[in-house]
Design brief:
Layout (H helix, E strand, L loop, with lengths): L1 H28 L1 H11 L7 H24 L4 H34 L3
Helix pairs in contact: 1-2, 1-3, 1-4, 2-3
Length: 113
């Protein structure tokens, strides 16, 4: 039973990391549409609990791509694309490292039971 729960946790965590990587890819490829989509889906000054929850989910699922875009938006188009490509590769490598750092000890602990 515990092994199945660990497997489900690992899958959900991997899905989350891949969604973040995919958001960086989408901001690299179709940045203008994704920026408009993200800014329409978030609130600048969240006052109510509904607005805060909406912002939490938007930043939680596709926030890394938007944050990287905002960081590089002052650069020229080609330089911004190169930076986003480098960030995409580093984001993927970092996601793999984070996945194994979190799931390896979990599997090690479950192995004792």
């Amino acid at each position: 039973m515990i092994e199945e729960l660990v497997h489900v946790f690992k899958m959900l965590f991997a899905y989350y990391l891949s969604i973040q990587w995919g958001s960086v890819l989408l901001f690299l490829v179709i940045e203008w549409a994704m920026v408009d989509f993200f800014e329409l889906g978030t609130y600048k000054k969240a006052n109510s609990i509904f607005q805060k929850i909406t912002n939490f989910f938007m930043y939680g699922f596709i926030g890394s791509g938007y944050i990287l875009y905002k960081k590089f938006e002052k650069n020229k188009w080609l330089v911004r694309k190169i930076y986003m490509l480098i960030a995409l590769v580093l984001h993927g490598i970092l996601a793999i490292i984070i996945y194994f750092v979190i799931t390896f000890p979990l599997e090690f602990i479950v192995g004792f039971f």
